[in-house]
Amino acid sequence: xxxxxxxxxxxxxxxxxxxxxxxILGTAPVANFDDAxxxxxxxxxxxxxxxxxxxxxxxxxxxxNNLIQIQPDLAxxxxxxxxxPMLPLSRSGTAKxxxxxxxxxxxxxxxxxxxxxxxxxxxxxxxxxYSSLPSGITFAAGPGGCSGQFGVxxxxxxxxxxxxxPLTAAVTIGAGGTSSVDASGNVTGVAGGDTVWVHDTLTLTxxxxxxxxxxSTGAQAIEAIPGLSGRSRTSGWLSLGQNIGEISISGVxxxxxxxxxSSxxxxxxxxxxxxxxxxxxxxxxxxxxxxxxxxxxARTASxxxxxxxxxxxxxxxxxxxxx
Length: 323
Fold this sequence. Notes:
25 strands; mainly beta; 323 residues
């Protein structure tokens, strides 16, 4: 197999017979080495730019004391995540990453002194619809739900008890908002749950994404987007806030539901363009973490009013980096 990246090089010298498919054996033409050196430099440049990442098996050491070494531990990362905004390293302890997709208790590793937390709260549900429509309006469509609030803490010191043992931290992962509409046409859209980190006297909260909770009868040609009331940024987080779900359009020839807002770790439920020939259509659920559900579409029918639930939001996530 051609060695197209540094991660494919062998620690056994005799097994390195090519660079990027160019033969570098002693019997190879001299001209091959011109190409091989150019390819090697390109591979190093790809590694430096991050387009060809290294495996997390490498070790860094203190330039002043090679007995102080550090190696990243990415075992706690789920396969769906490809990016961590930052992974700070210091000369104390071993870097460790722990990912929470459900609530629990975080126990710091022995030797860790500092930590940083990245998280997103649960995404809001897309709006359900009930097509008890006024004259002239055939379709009712709901807007998408908001994404959960995303935030990154500053680098913080771990708190210890009187015996020098690190205090644990309580982790609450916000649930994704759910949406429903009952036989009486009562529409329910639930906001996403809060994601919370509590360590010693410190409590940090990421607020769940909003969902539009009002009734939907299609009386408005264009529905309002979900508001951000009560979903402000939280002190202690370097927050990007939350994204807002798309609006929807209700009309005679069809309906267009709003897509749910995406988060850094999840994709909002897609909006839908429903033609006049279609019936009630439920909203699309969000995927990943912290994204909003898509809005639903319903239409007036001769057999009576139609109902459709909005898409559900996806739950939050919390990533703890310590060293």
